[in-house]
């Protein structure tokens, strides 16, 4: 108990130091969290007043599909000790391309259409979606700055990372990737619109397969046993159904919450792609493979959106 108290006190001190060093980021995270909680609260009130909507069921099933795809991708790490670095960078580039295209075609464009239907004005519609994007970026930026986690190439970061085991640091890092994906699935299904939710969920599930393998192999390369790496990668996929429920709650209340939620999910995913995934693929000298993978992923997602949307 004393050791736990000491760790908590140490983390609290380091968190205060981080807040003092980055007051604007901390303020942005606070604003984003308050906005998310308000959207979630008004949605919960409306859900409690009636039956669970079909969108909530679809969103949960979509989140489970993302979890299953992550688990499927992680399993080969039990017998694959490594893959060529250029192949891994190409796989992550493919995942980044699918996330970029999903953000554009399955989140931002439907968000703009829904917002214009509500406001009756193109400029106001863009302002609504951009507000959601800003909240998503502020949320992910704050979580990245104030959550202890570890990256394969850059090492541990965030307040209190010295007090956490490396397994937990990797878990937090993976959670920062999977949470916005789950939220995007939930938001896209929140209105029960299969034309929006189905292509997005298909794309996220497809890119979760190489992403799950890359995460498990990165943990193996960092010294973890294959069984531990696979279990952690599979467990991280649970953030997708949880994020999906959060996304449904965020966007299934007031009408204006839907385009804001779509913008929020898009902003969060774009932040992860630009801040984490693309730089990771360009650190090893295989930018061409990563870029070709990104283009392939983007093209596949565009095709899926056209065929299934």
Automatic annotation (TrEMBL):
List the InterPro entries hit by this protein, alphabetically: ZIP
Molecular function GO terms recorded: zinc ion transmembrane transporter activity
Keyword Protein biosynthesis carried by entry? no
Q: Mainly resides where?
A: membrane
What membrane topology does the UniProt entry give? Multi-pass membrane protein
Keywords tagged on the record: Cell membrane, Membrane, Transmembrane, Transmembrane helix, Zinc
User: Where in the cell is the protein located?
Assistant: Cell membrane
Query: Which Pfam families does the record cross-reference, listed alphabetically?
Result: Zip
* The keyword Cytoplasm appears for this protein: no
Q: Where are the transmembrane segments?
A: 24-48, 60-80, 92-111, 123-143, 228-250, 256-277, 289-308
Q: Name one GO cellular component term.
A: plasma membrane
What family is reported? Belongs to the ZIP transporter (TC 2.A.5) family.
Protein's name according to its UniProt entry: ZIP family metal transporter
């Amino acid at each position: 108990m004393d050791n736990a108290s000491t760790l908590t006190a140490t983390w609290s001190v380091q968190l205060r130091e981080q807040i003092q060093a980055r007051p604007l980021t901390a303020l942005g995270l606070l604003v984003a969290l308050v906005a998310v909680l308000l959207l979630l609260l008004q949605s919960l009130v409306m859900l409690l007043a009636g039956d669970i909507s079909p969108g909530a069921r679809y969103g949960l099933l979509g989140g489970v599909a993302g979890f299953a795809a992550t688990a499927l991708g992680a399993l080969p790490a039990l017998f694959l000790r490594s893959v060529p670095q250029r192949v891994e960078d190409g796989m992550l580039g493919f995942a980044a391309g699918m996330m970029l295209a999903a953000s554009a075609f399955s989140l931002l464009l439907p968000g703009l259409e829904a917002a214009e239907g509500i406001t009756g004005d193109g400029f106001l519609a863009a302002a609504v979606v951009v507000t959601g994007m800003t909240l998503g970026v502020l949320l992910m930026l704050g979580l990245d700055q104030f959550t202890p986690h570890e990256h394969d190439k850059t090492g541990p970061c965030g307040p209190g990372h010295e007090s956490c085991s490396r397994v937990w640091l990797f878990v937090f890092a993976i959670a920062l990737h999977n949470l916005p994906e789950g939220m995007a699935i939930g938001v896209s299904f929140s209105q029960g619109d299969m034309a929006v939710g189905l292509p997005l969920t298909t794309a996220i599930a497809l890119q979760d397969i190489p992403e799950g393998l890359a995460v498990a192999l990165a943990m193996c390369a960092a010294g973890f046993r294959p069984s531990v790496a696979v279990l952690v990668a599979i467990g991280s996929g649970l953030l997708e159904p949880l994020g999906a429920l959060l996304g449904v709650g965020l966007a299934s209340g007031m009408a204006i919450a839907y385009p804001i939620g779509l913008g929020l999910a898009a902003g969060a995913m774009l932040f992860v792609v630009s801040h984490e995934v693309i730089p990771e693929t360009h650190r090893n000298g295989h930018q061409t493979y990563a870029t070709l993978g990104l283009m392939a992923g983007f093209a596949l997602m565009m095709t899926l959106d056209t065929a299934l949307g």
